[in-house]
Amino acid sequence: MNVLYKSHYDSPIGKLWIVSDEMAIKGIWFDNQRHFAAGYSLAAIQQAETDSILALKKWLKAYFNGERCDVSALSLAPVGTVFQQQVWQILMTIPYGETMSYAEIAAQIWTDSAKGSPRAVGGAVGKNPIAICIPCHRVIGSKGAITGYAGGLEKKQWLLEHEMKR
How confident is the model at residue 165 (pLDDT cuts 50, 70, 90)? Predict the structure, then answer.
């Protein structure tokens, strides 16, 4: 089992908790969000500033300062099912300042609509353990509605507006 480390980042919209191992970021969560810490016991994780945490903090600072940051420079290793990983990979393709609907993501996964649904996609999006970097905040309802965000709708709205201004 890998040793895990934690840290936090004070963002303009609240404290973010970060979990990493020696190699990669495992999770970024808003304080007290749904699915917070995704099964990790933060109390049992050592506080430390690993190279991956330091790189992430630099990235977050640039992001919140309005820079379009290349997330591919970060080492991310979210833990999830094969389906969740597939959805999260699609999230990574949504450009900064743009959005995609749950239905559009479902259409990329299934060529036969009987095989899956936007609701299944929504479940995977909601369990994304790496907020902001894997941009689940860029997923909206099919009619453009701001729907569902584990960190809270007000944070999702803020992130979308922050990106649209740039």
Answer: confident
Contacts of 3 (CB under 8 A, 6+ apart): 21, 22, 46
> With contact defined as beta carbons under 8 Å apart, do 17 and 31 qualify?
yes
What is the pLDDT of the chain when averaged over all its residues?
Answer: 90
**Average pLDDT of the segment spanning 140-153:** 89
Give the global pTM: 0.90
**Across residues 51-68, what is the average pLDDT?**
96
Pick the catalytic residue from 37, 91, 136, 139: 136
Q: Active-site residue 136, yes or no?
A: yes
CATH of the domain spanning 5-65, picked from 1.10.3470, 1.10.1760, 1.10.357, 3.30.160? 3.30.160
